[in-house]
Amino acid sequence: MAADTTEYDFDLFTIGAGSGGVRASRVAAAHGARVAVAEEFRVGGTCVIRGCVPKKMLVYGAHFAEDLEDCAKFGWEIGEKSFDWIKLRDNVLNDVDRLENAYTETLENHDVTIFRERAEITGGHEITLASGKVVTARYILIATGAHPRMPTCEGAEHAISSNEAFHLDALPKRILIAGGGYIANEFAGIFNEFGSKVTIVNRSDVLLRGYDESVRDRLLQISTMKGIEFRFNTTFEYIRECPDGGYFVKLSDRDEEHADVVMFATGRVPNVKGLGLDKAGVELGERGEIVVDRFSKTNIDHIYAVGDVTDRVQLTPVAIREGQAFADTVFGKGDPVAVDHGCIPSAVFSHPPIASVGMTEGQARNKLGTVKVYQADFRPMKNVLAGRNERSLMKMICDGENGKIVGIHMIAPEAPEMMQAAAIAVKAGLTKADFDATVAIHPTMAEELVLMR
Ligand code: NDP
């Protein structure tokens, strides 16, 4: 686009330098726009600073616990082993610093002006920064993400969220994690492998709502076997400080107990407060999310929003796609681009991980009527030799009419790695026969995908 050098200070002002905001800003700048971005915390956003990336590093760290246990069966003898949480924590945090610098450099290399402060919309095209500086922009993009939902109960302020979990000064001996979703199951696996006594406390008896029931059940079974405790259909009554350290916790259906750390992982709420959205007349939805059309445009013509703040699908790669599509649509030369939110693969980095694409068996039965389900339930070769009684499960859901694969669900070591490739085939509309026509790579776990009966 031709930069508008007369009317506004910038062509685009992005609020929030997370995954969606950074991508949108960088691409808009590459299209020739004069871009500024405001970030009140750290460039990189939730995913890079206190989410997916440091979490995955902790998952890697946690895996060593079982590998070191299993290695004896593979002939390795190692001396006494110990785990140093502070060492891992600091190495992870140092890498987060490195990544923040890399993201900052990317923006700077594209001549994006970075304001390291809070920004608020104070007029049609006017943005006021925390320092008092006022700038104007032809377009405004809100990419402020979401923050952890902290339930209210007596003493809720003593609980941490995943944000603080990366900074703990000591590994908790006992941790209670509220919630049954992504974060609860991922951190339960991490802390359990590090030797903490972990209890998941959930308001219902459904873990990972939305995932296929068979893989959810398998995770529950394996997690229980590994020593994670589950308290279902219960809520927190209070969290009280214990004079000797830690907290006394009372759940609705049992006696008071003690925990060193209580962590809430009960969903994330769009960051819309203090942005001046009401003054700007931007419409919000029932969950407090910014309502946008398929091009991420709000009800106000020059204000757009991408990522978790729109609460469409709260996943980093989706925010990145939305940011890219926005920049291409508004500042590119081609046709408008809308993100396809269908058939998005996802993974839970639990121990073992879950990965999924498309419809669950239940959803497919409701929607399609006739479905065919293929399944592989097996003990991975490595687990057999290690003497680890942990089975993997893969499920393929096909349309009974034409054999088209409408969903694949797995719980297995490296399931997310396998799923990324399988998801291409599902997205492309391939059939079970297409999978069967592909020769297996032997011996792998992924070969089950083309051998399922
Ligand atoms: P999730 O939505 O995955 O899970 C929230 C859990 O908290 C559910 O079990 C839910 O129960 C429960 N819950 C919701 N509200 C309350 C409440 N008021 N009181 C008690 N329990 C409640 O959220 P997470 O916090 O685990 O993760 C947030 C988001 O971050 C995820 O939705 C995901 O999009 C993203 N994320 C993705 C990851 C990945 O891709 N691997 C990893 C981590 C996060 P119920 O089922 O009954 O609603």
Automatic annotation (TrEMBL):
<dbReference type="InterPro" id="IPR012999">
    <property type="entry name" value="Pyr_OxRdtase_I_AS"/>
</dbReference>
<keyword id="KW-0676">Redox-active center</keyword>
<feature type="domain" description="Pyridine nucleotide-disulphide oxidoreductase dimerisation">
    <location>
        <begin position="344"/>
        <end position="452"/>
    </location>
</feature>
<dbReference type="InterPro" id="IPR023753">
    <property type="entry name" value="FAD/NAD-binding_dom"/>
</dbReference>
<feature type="domain" description="FAD/NAD(P)-binding">
    <location>
        <begin position="11"/>
        <end position="323"/>
    </location>
</feature>
<dbReference type="Pfam" id="PF02852">
    <property type="entry name" value="Pyr_redox_dim"/>
</dbReference>
<dbReference type="InterPro" id="IPR046952">
    <property type="entry name" value="GSHR/TRXR-like"/>
</dbReference>
<comment type="similarity">
    <text>Belongs to the class-I pyridine nucleotide-disulfide oxidoreductase family.</text>
</comment>
<keyword id="KW-0547">Nucleotide-binding</keyword>
<keyword id="KW-1015">Disulfide bond</keyword>
<dbReference type="GO" id="GO:0034599">
    <property type="term" value="P:cellular response to oxidative stress"/>
</dbReference>
<feature type="binding site">
    <location>
        <position position="308"/>
    </location>
    <ligand>
        <name>FAD</name>
    </ligand>
</feature>
<dbReference type="InterPro" id="IPR004099">
    <property type="entry name" value="Pyr_nucl-diS_OxRdtase_dimer"/>
</dbReference>
<dbReference type="GO" id="GO:0004362">
    <property type="term" value="F:glutathione-disulfide reductase (NADPH) activity"/>
</dbReference>
<feature type="binding site">
    <location>
        <position position="267"/>
    </location>
    <ligand>
        <name>NAD(+)</name>
    </ligand>
</feature>
<keyword id="KW-0560">Oxidoreductase</keyword>
<protein>
    <submittedName>
        <fullName>Glutathione-disulfide reductase</fullName>
        <ecNumber>1.8.1.7</ecNumber>
    </submittedName>
</protein>
<dbReference type="GO" id="GO:0045454">
    <property type="term" value="P:cell redox homeostasis"/>
</dbReference>
<dbReference type="GO" id="GO:0006749">
    <property type="term" value="P:glutathione metabolic process"/>
</dbReference>
<feature type="disulfide bond" description="Redox-active">
    <location>
        <begin position="47"/>
        <end position="52"/>
    </location>
</feature>
<feature type="binding site">
    <location>
        <begin position="179"/>
        <end position="186"/>
    </location>
    <ligand>
        <name>NAD(+)</name>
    </ligand>
</feature>
<feature type="binding site">
    <location>
        <position position="56"/>
    </location>
    <ligand>
        <name>FAD</name>
    </ligand>
</feature>
<keyword id="KW-0520">NAD</keyword>
<dbReference type="GO" id="GO:0005829">
    <property type="term" value="C:cytosol"/>
</dbReference>
<dbReference type="InterPro" id="IPR016156">
    <property type="entry name" value="FAD/NAD-linked_Rdtase_dimer_sf"/>
</dbReference>
<dbReference type="GO" id="GO:0050660">
    <property type="term" value="F:flavin adenine dinucleotide binding"/>
</dbReference>
<feature type="active site" description="Proton acceptor">
    <location>
        <position position="442"/>
    </location>
</feature>
<keyword id="KW-0274">FAD</keyword>
<dbReference type="InterPro" id="IPR036188">
    <property type="entry name" value="FAD/NAD-bd_sf"/>
</dbReference>
<dbReference type="InterPro" id="IPR001100">
    <property type="entry name" value="Pyr_nuc-diS_OxRdtase"/>
</dbReference>
<dbReference type="Pfam" id="PF07992">
    <property type="entry name" value="Pyr_redox_2"/>
</dbReference>
<keyword id="KW-0285">Flavoprotein</keyword>
